[in-house]
Design goal:
three-stranded mixed beta sheet, Phage tail protein beta-alpha-beta fold, alpha+beta, 3 domains, 7 helices, 13-stranded mixed beta sheet, about 25% helix, about 325 residues, Jelly Rolls
């Protein structure tokens, strides 16, 4: 695997991307080319920017939004941070960016980044959505079906007098509840299931199914489901606004916290494997970062008014 690109190079690539869309002159283009050639990381960062652009000399029309044209200083910094985060996360960031800008599809129930929401469905089922999640509801005379489009949900199934089966469909297959409380999280490559009560049957789209009992968890792709394992402690702590870590790698913890905030949080490779334990508030990422910095030998280096943060080894003074 290629070495990580320096966060500063990614940030500068985003700056150039936005700048070249804002009435850039030939001198600006020449300066950008000089910057690109001055450092290998700059060249690699600009290659990622090119992937985001789809071409080197301009944004796709779908991304030519008014916010990129002479925004106010604060607004411009927000745009740069969003572009930088997308560049850092190519290709997933590109797809997420395209979705965020198009807004073509609106879910039946959804949450924004950092938002959690609980609703009661027509049959009494309790549905809780985690940050940046989206669900479509398809109740018919023969079944109760939820389509999880993105994110994570917790379900406490209600009693249905018509005895209609309760199912959750994702891009990788279908889950059928067997009188239960369970959570489902959609990842890019698979779906994660955690069962707290009752049981759930997993049926991958093209594979053999299995039943996951209370106190167990599993992940499945479109072709297969992993054997059930013991449920992680605190797997549904997000419903109370907390993230529980028991010797969790710092980079994994940061990936979880990043789901609840805008902007970008990076982790220096030198501290990525640092084991972290504790309870962190997902609704207050600034407080969570303060807790990390005050407890562990790391510093939070902030740029772009806090939109871009890098956790790095603490420098001795």
């Amino acid at each position: 695997m290629a070495a990580p690109i320096a966060p500063r190079a990614l940030e500068q690539a985003a700056e150039w991307l936005v700048r070249l869309q804002d009435g850039a002159t030939e001198a600006d283009h020449a300066a950008c080319e000089q910057w690109r050639r001055s450092d290998p990381d700059n060249a690699r960062a600009w290659e990622r920017a090119a992937t985001l652009l789809g071409k080197f000399d301009g944004l796709p029309k779908a991304l030519a939004m008014p916010a990129l044209h002479r925004p106010a200083v604060a607004g411009r910094r927000a745009v740069v941070a969003r572009v930088a985060a997308a560049i850092a996360a190519i290709p997933a960031g590109w797809l997420g960016w395209r979705y965020a800008q198009s807004q073509v599809w609106a879910p039946d129930i959804g949450t924004a980044v950092g938002e959690r929401r609980s609703v009661t469905l027509a049959d009494g089922t309790q549905l809780t959505l985690n940050t940046a999640s989206a669900v479509d509801i398809r109740y018919t005379g023969t079944e109760r079906l939820l389509l999880l489009r993105k994110g994570e949900i917790l379900i406490q199934t209600g009693h249905d007098g018509a005895n209609r089966p309760f199912r959750v469909a994702t891009a990788h297959g279908t889950l059928q509840a067997l009188g239960t409380r369970f959570s489902v999280r959609l990842h890019e490559d698979d779906t994660a299931l955690a069962v707290e009560q009752g049981a759930v049957r997993i049926t991958p789209e093209h594979g053999q199914g299995l039943v996951v009992a209370a106190g167990q968890q599993s992940r499945y792709t479109a072709r297969s489901a992993a054997p059930p394992s013991e449920l992680d402690a605190g797997s549904s702590a997000w419903t109370t606004g907390m993230l529980l870590a028991d010797r969790m790698r710092l980079d994994r913890l940061v990936a979880e916290l990043s789901r609840y905030r805008g902007g970008y949080i990076g982790v220096d490779a030198r501290v990525a494997g640092l084991p972290i334990s504790g309870a962190f508030p997902v609704a207050d990422s600034e407080r969570a970062l303060d807790m990390l910095v005050s407890t562990y030998p790391i510093d939070a280096l902030s740029r772009l008014n806090g939109y871009w943060i890098t956790l790095a080894p603490r420098q001795e003074k």
